[in-house]
Amino acid sequence: MTRLKIILITILSLLAFAANSLITRFALEKTSIDEASFIMLRVVSGALFLWLFVTIKNHKAPLQSGSWLAAAALFIYAVSFTYGYGLIAAGTGALLLFGSVQITMTLVGYREGERLNRVQLIGFVLALAGLVILMLPGIRAPSFIGALLMCISGIAWGIYTLQGRGASDPAAATAGNFIKAAPMAILLWFIVNLVDHGSINLDSTGAFYALFSGIITSGMGYIIWYSILPELKAIQAAVVQLSVPILVTLAGAMLLNEAITLRVVLASCAILSGTILVLTCKKSSTA
């Protein structure tokens, strides 16, 4: 795969990730759909679309593709991501999410033998500091529960991403993961419906956003992401995703009237500076 193609596919993936954050936050704030219904519709619609896509493409159902670990990580990501965005602004949530992704994948990459030189290590610490800035208590601090859920979501997404690096057929692997995660999402919806029936609201506009998220920005977006993962190291795959929060923060300010606070600016600067250092300062032979 050429460098230009890698860059273009990576950019498309990052745009899909940013769109997911905005769509989820917009649906939960501007419509009356509940979180459990949004999760169920997003995951099930993604599974149905991907099953149909792979069946037509490969002439066989992708039931044996993917893994239960990746499916579980996908489900945990979707649950914590959606409930977290019910409590936190889009840009702040994206910073916490992808900051957690970077830390998770960098640590796994280190365990697998990937090493950072001194400058890259400074970058990693800067990114970590950005997360700390966001999590510190204060008047402008985000909801602690919301922040915690977004961090859990980031860890789960990091695991899901790492599971996709060895996928020989990205579309089949993505489809298999969604198909395995769909029963989990349906079960969650039934449990919430039984425990608190009044909280379930299949708002038609919210349902449309959930279906769009499931089919387009998740189903198609994750196929694209899985296709590029074999070309990226764990640390590279982690840090390139840290451009997403800036896109989400700016779009959230324009589309959702979310405030860009000094805390968010400082955290963004720290995380992005760390990202640039990790990406651009190559490991030297003596490091």
State the total count of DSSP E strands.
0
Please identify the oligomeric state. single chain
Q: Report how far apart the termini are.
A: 29 Å
Given as residue ranges, the uncertain stretches (5+ residues, pLDDT < 50) are: 283-287
Which secondary-structure class do the elements indicate? mainly alpha
Main beta sheet strand tally, sense and closure: none
Which sequence of SSEs, written as H and E, runs from N to C? Answer: HHHHHHHHHHH
- Report the β-strand fraction as a percent range: under 5%
Please state the average pLDDT score.
82
What does this molecule look like?
With 287 residues, the chain is mostly helical. It has one domain (3-280). Helix content is 76%, strand content 0%. It has helices at residues 3-30, 35-58, 68-85, 90-111, 118-135, 144-163, 170-195, 204-228, 234-240, 244-255, 262-280. α1 packs antiparallel against α8 (204-228) and α4 runs parallel beside α11 (262-280). The radius of gyration is 18 Å and the shape is globular. The relative contact order is 0.23.
Which secondary structure elements does this structure contain, and how are they paired or packed?
Layout: H1 3-30, H2 35-58, H3 68-85, H4 90-111, H5 118-135, H6 144-163, H7 170-195, H8 204-228, H9 234-240, H10 244-255, H11 262-280
Helix pairs in contact: 1-4, 1-8, 1-10, 2-3, 2-7, 2-8, 3-6, 3-7, 4-5, 4-6, 4-9, 4-10, 4-11, 5-11, 7-8, 9-11
